[in-house]
């Protein structure tokens, strides 16, 4: 339905008003077209409005106008299309591949595939989780703050797969929202990211709007950094599962839920997610989206007081990427072993190797993470039957990337070695000629 304005309307079928038309008054003169439209039509959704203005269908005195066009008093603004409403009832779409993993009288938890929006942005849009909920659980439409979101307690980006919480009543929506705000809901994600992970393991960089690109956000790492608008506190915990050559697999725990939080925090640390080209991540496996899966959900139910533990298996597409990355890691080592007598194999007075890592178990690489309910383990030694060498564990004496002695300093004193653990078969982590060796040499994203 078209929006009411202070002036004429374009006629439609059966008397239905389609589009809009109005005369610019003295108060609006000198203002940008987008600003005037937002004031006249406060119920219109902003993003679809900007898209419509970019097509030239909105005209000022008969000529196509852009959103930044300055208006003069007495000019006529016309459009033969409706502006999309900010809020609306989502069209039922019952045949979408959405799976229910938990259901009670207060709460639904569904598993969303990658490539599916959480909710529609415009009235005619289908194919979103909210469209599916509208068909199968119509009570959710009135449960949340917006009918078009159909009771969703949180949202996932289109390219992110995994668990979504949905309230079935307004009381439940408020209760679960409060629980999440108080930190009572632990959400975990599985990621595959670029480079070697060197921390920080607990990221507390606030997030701000990008100054020029509305589709991005910024992580503000220092007080002196410039930012636009207010800063939103954001906390992310990163637990390394294992290093896979030029990539690493990790579990992410969110203590807050900000837009693009996982993606921007990892990118700001110098380790963008595989496939996340929006934040400088490469896509060597053809994912066409970030390797990001909302795989775990833990909380105490605010109504039943029972603990809830839910898991979602990695989708087949992500599992295949993980298997490929693991196979590449097996076939091609991180770097060739140093040759005897080269600058990367300096002799020192103490014994070869790092005594703390000889035969010990790394506190980073070997731990098992609870994953997918289908039994596929994601741990330091195996993923879906494909074996890979654990980071920092076992009798191979491989250095732990985060070990305080991984800089190559011999425990016995003497000259500093840049080979990581001093073994001739270990990875060359320093620069030739004895360059800086802190945490294994120069950092690569």
- The quaternary state of the protein chains shown equals single chain
Q: Would you tell me which CATH topology of the largest domain applies? A: Pseudouridine synthase
The arrangement of helices and strands along the chain is EHHEEEEEHEHEEEEEEEHEEHEE
Shape: globular
Secondary structure tally, helices: 6
Our count of domains comes out at 3
CATH C-level class of the largest domain is Alpha Beta
Ranges where pLDDT stays below 50 over 5 or more residues in a row are 1-16, 336-377, 379-445
For the terminal residues, how far apart are their CA atoms? 50 Å
- Mean pLDDT rating: 76
SS-based class: alpha+beta
Largest sheet: 9 strands, mixed
Strand element count? 18
**CATH homologous superfamily grouping of the largest domain:** Pseudouridine synthase
Strand residue percentage: 15-25%
CATH architecture of the largest domain, by name, is: 2-Layer Sandwich
Helix content: 10-25%
Alpha-carbon Rg, integer: 27 Å
């Amino acid at each position: 339905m078209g929006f009411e304005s202070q002036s004429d309307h374009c006629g439609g079928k059966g008397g239905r008003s389609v589009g809009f038309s109005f005369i610019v008054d003295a108060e609006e003169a000198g203002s940008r077209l987008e600003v005037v439209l937002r004031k006249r039509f406060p119920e219109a959704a902003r993003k679809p409005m900007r898209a419509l203005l970019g097509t030239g269908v909105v005209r000022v005195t008969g000529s196509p106008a852009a959103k930044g066009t300055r208006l003069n008093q007495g000019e006529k603004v016309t459009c033969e299309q409706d502006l999309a409403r900010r809020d609306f009832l989502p069209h039922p779409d019952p045949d979408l591949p959405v799976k229910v993993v938990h259901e009670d009288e207060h709460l639904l938890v569904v598993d969303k595939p990658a490539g599916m929006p959480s909710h529609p942005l415009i009235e005619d849009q289908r194919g979103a989780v909210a469209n599916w909920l509208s068909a199968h659980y119509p009570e959710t439409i009135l449960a949340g703050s917006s009918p078009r979101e159909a009771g969703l307690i949180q949202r996932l980006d289109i390219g992110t797969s995994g668990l979504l919480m949905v309230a079935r009543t307004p009381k439940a929506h408020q209760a679960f929202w409060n629980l999440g705000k108080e930190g009572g809901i632990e959400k975990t994600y599985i990621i595959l990211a670029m480079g070697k992970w060197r921390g920080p393991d607990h990221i507390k960089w606030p997030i701000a709007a990008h100054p020029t690109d509305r589709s991005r956000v910024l992580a503000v790492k220092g007080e002196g950094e410039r930012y636009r608008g207010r800063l939103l506190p954001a906390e992310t915990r990163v637990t390394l599962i294992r290093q896979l050559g030029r990539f690493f697999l990790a579990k992410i725990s969110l203590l807050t839920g900000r837009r693009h939080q996982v993606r921007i925090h990892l990118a700001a640390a110098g380790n963008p997610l595989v496939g996340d080209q929006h934040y400088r991540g490469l896509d060597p496996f053809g994912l066409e989206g970030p390797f990001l899966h909302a795989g775990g959900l833990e909380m105490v139910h605010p109504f039943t007081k029972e603990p809830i533990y839910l898991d979602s298996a990695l989708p087949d597409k992500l599992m295949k990427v993980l298997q490929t990355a693991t196979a590449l890691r097996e076939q091609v080592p991180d770097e060739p072993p140093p040759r005897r007598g080269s600058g990367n194999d300096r002799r020192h007075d103490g014994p070869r190797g790092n005594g703390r890592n000889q035969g010990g178990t790394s506190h980073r690489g070997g731990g098992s993470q609870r994953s997918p309910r289908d039994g596929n383990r994601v741990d330091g030694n195996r993923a879906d039957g494909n074996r890979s060498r654990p980071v920092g564990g076992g009798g191979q004496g491989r250095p732990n990337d985060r070990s305080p002695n991984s800089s190559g300093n011999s425990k016995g004193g003497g000259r500093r070695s840049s080979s990581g653990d001093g073994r001739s078969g270990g990875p060359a982590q320093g620069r030739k000629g004895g360059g800086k060796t802190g945490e294994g040499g120069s950092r690569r994203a």
